[in-house]
Specification:
Largest sheet: 6 strands, mixed
CATH architecture of the largest domain: 2-Layer Sandwich
Number of strands: 13
Distance between the termini: 16 Å
Shape: globular
Helix content: 40-55%
Number of domains: 2
Number of helices: 11
Bound molecules: adenosine-5'-diphosphate, magnesium ion
């Protein structure tokens, strides 16, 4: 049953409209966002789809086809940050953030949604949920907000209402990406540029390999990397590592006595540089040449930032041995997904090689699917 029919069955009337917002995968630029550097996500074909109608009585009703349980009913006056720990906090947080930003014309909604974005694989199922809600309310209540503004509100919902300290990349990707492009996002001034990334026309495919693992140490390790980067910026006398020029990296590293901080700085500054290299290659139409840059990025995440894990290292090694053009882990690390650039003709061979390597190591079978660079959030009907 589609979300339109599901909505009618739940709420007894047709929805005013249906919207979709995608998950994302980051091509290159990891742990660079909070250093005010560059990231380069692309939207996935997988989307959260929401059927929505307005209400004028201050009530928000939420339902997900993917979660067991009844409709969640909330009152807009009683939306309090950090108090709702269920999935409903994501869409509710968006309504809260809109009203906090002064959009008090938003007086309620009925929402029924379903999503094909895998959860917990580092593909931003949460941002998809937030952005689809934000776009639907923006359209229905004629708020006139731009895509980047919707992304900022969605981020605010996740940071301050749900309580997850995420950067701006996920929501910006879901709100602003376009078909056949990767999105260059400058995390300092939040400027964006669509970079051509039409894989199919080059006979290429970008595979996402969900390792199916999530090692528990993730959260503390993230905070530790962040603190180490801040320490590096302080010693180097810059506000953020974004300000350390790649050309001056060796000299900067020589001024850092702490071996750990030195590694973090080397990763961040070199990954910002890799984003620029990838953009140069894509602008020149030399898509295959980004493969080795991706693999270099993986080595940096594994050896300098030390956020990879055996499963992700195995994806990269087995894919590259089987003829992939390049591969890297993507996202926060310690599990989640990797991206693999591969000739369309080699997709089956490389997929099989990764699956066999996982089986031989005794790991859970990975989930592999193509990351076709897709459109950002949109109204469907
Ligand atoms: P990621 O964004 O990387 O997939 P998160 O932990 O940030 O992982 O977000 C996952 C959470 O988002 C889920 O635990 C759930 O609360 C919510 N979520 C995602 N998809 C759905 C869905 N289809 N229905 C209800 N909640 C969802
Ligand atoms: Mg998330």
């Amino acid at each position: 049953m589609g979300v339109r029919e599901g909505f009618e069955e739940l709420y007894g009337a047709a929805p005013e409209g249906v919207w979709a917002a995608p998950g994302r995968v980051n091509l290159i630029g990891e742990y660079t966002d909070f250093n005010e550097g560059f990231v380069m996500p692309l939207a996935l074909p997988h989307t959260a789809v929401a059927a929505v109608s307005r209400r004028d009585d201050g009530v928000l009703r939420l339902h997900s086809a993917d979660i067991e349980g009844p409709v969640v009913e909330l009152h807009l006056d009683a939306l309090v940050p950090l108090t709702n720990t269920s999935w409903a906090a994501y869409p509710a947080g968006v309504v809260w953030a809109l009203r906090e930003a002064g959009h008090t014309s938003v007086t309620g909604a009925d929402v029924h949604l379903a999503s094909t974005v895998p959860t917990g694989a580092g593909l931003s199922s949460s941002a998809a949920l937030e952005v689809v809600t934000a776009l639907a309310l923006n359209d229905l209540y004629e708020l006139g907000l731009t895509r980047p503004e919707l992304a900022r509100l969605a981020q605010r919902a996740e940071n301050d209402f749900v309580g997850v300290p995420c950067g701006i990349m996920d929501q910006t990707a879901s709100a602003c990406c376009t078909d056949g492009h990767a999105l260059h996002l400058d995390c300092r001034d939040l400027s964006i540029r669509q970079v051509p990334f039409d894989l199919a026309s080059h006979g290429l495919s970008l595979l996402v390999v969900d390792s199916r693992v999530k090692h528990a140490l993730g959260d503390g390790e993230y905070a530790e990397r962040r603190e180490g980067c801040e320490e590096g910026a302080r010693v180097l006398g810059v506000s953020h590592l974004r300000d350390v020029a790649y050309e001056g990296l060796d000299e900067a590293l020589s001024r850092l006595s702490d071996e750990r901080v030195r590694r973090y700085v080397r990763h961040v500054v070199s990954d910002d540089h890799r984003v620029e290299r990838v953009i140069g290659l894509l602008d020149a139409g030399d898509v295959r040449a980004i493969g080795p840059v991706l693999t270099e990025g993986h080595a940096s995440l594994r050896d300098d930032l030390r956020i990879s894990c055996e499963e992700l290292d195995l994806v990269v090694a087995s894919a590259n041995s089987a003829g992939a053009l390049g591969a890297r882990m993507t996202g926060g690390g310690f599990g989640g997904s990797a991206v693999v650039l591969v000739e369309v003709a080699d997709v089956d061979t490389v997929t099989k090689a990764v699956e066999e390597a996982f089986a031989a190591a005794g790991y859970t079978a990975p989930r592999v699917f193509p990351a076709v660079p897709s459109a950002g959030a949109r109204r469907v009907s």
